[in-house]
Automatic annotation (TrEMBL):
Membership in a protein family: Belongs to the AHA1 family.
Originating organism: Cohnella xylanilytica
Pfam family membership, one: AHSA1
Location of the Activator of Hsp90 ATPase homologue 1/2-like C-terminal domain: 19-166
Protein name in UniProt: SRPBCC domain-containing protein
C-alpha cells in the first residue's frame, strides 16, 4: 500500500482567546474608530481613508512604520453577521484603493479571503480566523505557504494588540 503524504497547508488558521465579551470584540472589528486603534503591526500608525464596514464596503487605510515607510491596504467586506462572523478579503492597494502587489514580495497573493468567527464562553471570546488566497497562481500559492509563519506571527501580534485594547475599553 502506498504511503500518503500530508498536503501542504493552503490555509492560515489562528485561534485566539480574548478577555472580553463577544459583542465588544465584534464591535472592535466593525467600528472603524476602534479598528484603527489596534489593527496592524505594533508601532505602526494607521491612517484611515475609507471606513465603510458593511457587506460590499471597504476599509481602506495606510500603515506608516516608525521609520516612515508606508503601505496602502484594504479590507473588502463580504459578510457581517453580528456578533458571530465576519468575512473579508484583504490585500495591498494603491492610494486610490486599487488592488496592488505586496511591497515585500512580487509573488505574494493579490488577495486573501478571511473568515473570522466569534464564540463566547464565561465572558471570554474565542476568535477563530481562517484565511486563504483567492484564485492564486501556483507561484503565489508557493509564496503563501512559505510565508505562513510570518503571517501567523503578524496576526498573533495584531490580536495581542486587540486584547490589550479591549482591556482598556
Amino acid at each position: 500500500m502506498a504511503e500518503k503524504q500530508a498536503a501542504e497547508p493552503t490555509e492560515l488558521v489562528i485561534v485566539r482567546e480574548l478577555r472580553a465579551p463577544r459583542e465588544l470584540v465584534f464591535e472592535a472589528f466593525t467600528n472603524p474608530e476602534h479598528l484603527a486603534q489596534w489593527w496592524g503591526p505594533e508601532g505602526f500608525e494607521i491612517v484611515v481613508v475609507r471606513k465603510d464596514i458593511r457587506p460590499g464596503g471597504i476599509f481602506h487605510y495606510k500603515q506608516r512604520s516608525p521609520e516612515g515607510d508606508e503601505m496602502w491596504c484594504k479590507l473588502a467586506y463580504d459578510e457581517i453577521e453580528p456578533p458571530e462572523r465576519i468575512v473579508f478579503t484583504n490585500g495591498f492597494s494603491d492610494e486610490e484603493g486599487r488592488t496592488a502587489r505586496a511591497p515585500f514580495h512580487a509573488s505574494w497573493p493579490l488577495e486573501i479571503r478571511n473568515a473570522i468567527t466569534f464564540a463566547e464562553r464565561d465572558g471570554l471570546t474565542t476568535l477563530t480566523m481562517r484565511g486563504a488566497p483567492v484564485n492564486p497562481t501556483e507561484e503565489e500559492l508557493k509564496t503563501f505557504r512559505e510565508g505562513l509563519e510570518m503571517v501567523r506571527e503578524g496576526f498573533s501580534a495584531t490580536f495581542q494588540r486587540l486584547d490589550d485594547y479591549l482591556a482598556k475599553a
